[in-house]
Amino acid sequence: DVKVTQSSRYLVKRTGEKVFLECVQDMDHENMFWYRQDPGLGLRLIYFSYDVKMKEKGDIPEGYSVSREKKERFSLILESASTNQTSMYLCASSDPIVQANTIYFGEGSWLTVV
Amino acid sequence: TQLLEQSPQFLSIQEGENLTVYCNSSSVFSSLQWYRQEPGEGPVLLVTVVTGGEVKKLKRLTFQFGDARKDSSLHITAAQPGDTGLYLCAVRFGNEKLTFGTGTRLTIIP
Fold it and tell me: Is B72 exposed, middle or buried (0-12, 13-18, 19+ CB in 10 A)?
């Protein structure tokens, strides 16, 4: 089974702190994604990556950055956390060749910024 | 901006009843997926449909893709408490990335 692991399930951070959310997948997938999920807004794509050291902006990249130094790891960075970034963050991965339409999600990271 | 609406937003029914939830787009899409997300978990893919008019069955779940490729429905027969969760549709417009709907939160009452 594909495993997408998000290192932190629940975090509480202060406004202005730098926050790192880590994600690791074990299936050698090319594509990795970061979404945030908010009630009534569904899943919104923050950033995605098609390869190591490659990154593309999604629909809501403002206030976020990402890092993909290794194929299996995709990190989401909040440079200066704000209260409107309180949300559930979901990491996902997919293989564009073998299973182009299948995206595998992690269990999510609940971030509260106070 | 492509719009993707799901209805109803919330649905609560008794165990054993049947239900249908809907996903509607303002534009034609090339493929559609349905996901289920249980509390505290990430979404899990249920089905992918790519052909207009297509019908797929997954045990008690029946998925329909509209002929015009702008809408889809998910019908559950004899709902069980294990069906409780957030049902999300996701579509791809041409070769663009997936766009997710806002979801239908389903609660099955034992």
Answer: buried
